[in-house]
Amino acid sequence: MLVAEEQSAGRGRLDRSWVAPARSGLFFSVLLKPGDAVPQERWGWLTLLAGVATATGLSRAAGVDTALKWPNDLLVTVDGEERKTGGILAERVEDGVVLGIGLNVSLTEDELPVPAAGSLALAKASVTDRDPLLRAVLRSLEEWYGNWRAAAGDPAASGLQETYAAGCATLGRHVRAELPGGRTLTGTAEAVDTDGRLVIRTAEGQHETVGAGDVIHLRSVH
User: Could you give the C-alpha distances from 165 to 18, 123, 124, 154, in angstroms and in order?
Assistant: First the structure.
């Protein structure tokens, strides 16, 4: 594991840049090597696993509810508004996967990079000391990763698929998915399948799976 004090040239999905002031958040990368214990076609679940582990750890350590936006964003509620407070990037390396996790912890409104961003402090977290927060997230990651690996990466047997769905703010929402190649898909996000893909029901009643792309929450479906 490597921990950084600040981000001056961070990289997110689709090569987007990301910066954060020194000592304002948690910015760390973890190398995981599932090896032969998990078939490589299941390694894609590691992004979702990291989201579940981070949300669980923050709930325990800081008493803040963190929701998951498919596939890799962490959301908190600030003054009744859903805001992004963190993100996860998984990259395949020769013999494993590097998980990069970034969390806004103590940023004030004036320090936020964009108005739609949030932080644990703004979400009224009971703890904003980064040391116990990092330890809590890592303990949770160790637990979830161990269970997933012991189940040979099976998302159902490890409880990962059910727990992710329960904490996913995307499910049940009307969404627009911006897909590679410039295609867009609009509909209701209904499920996360066994491969970790988002299942969207279109207005025509067709079910389409999305494995990559940007998903925008449009409104809740009642």
Answer: 28, 22, 25, 15
